[in-house]
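Researcher: We're teaching a course module on how sequence relates to structure. For the next exercise, students receive a sequence and then see the predicted structure as tokens, so they can try to spot secondary structure elements on their own. Here is the exercise chain.
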Amino acid sequence: MSRRSVRRYGIKKQYLKTRPVCKVTFRLPRELAPEAQRVYIVGEFNHWDQQATPMKRLKSGDWTVTLELEPGREYRYRYLIDGTCWENDRFADDYVPNPFGSEDSVIRV
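Model: And here is the predicted structure for the students to work with:
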């Protein structure tokens, strides 16, 4: 894949020319968390730490965060809403089963 900005629905991938990273912007639509007070993105990139990566609420009500990820890999992740509700990303590249009887979202960079 060329080092350019790629937007796939709710996920934006920007490959940097100056260093080997991909800036990935994740966006959780407000419809999936209309009453949320806090949303975190949790996954392999932050060792599944449930409080390591908070998302920011936009004026639109959507939640967003941008991470720098190593290209050439794929990462499992999910959104954690108010510490109790797990949500997958409807714009993920793929979904894979997890040990808890549900699925994880997958992003490939």
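Model: If you want an answer key for the exercise: Strands lie at 5-8, 11-15, 22-28, 39-43, 56-57, 63-69, 74-81, 85-87, 94-97, 103-108. The longest strand covers residues 74-81.
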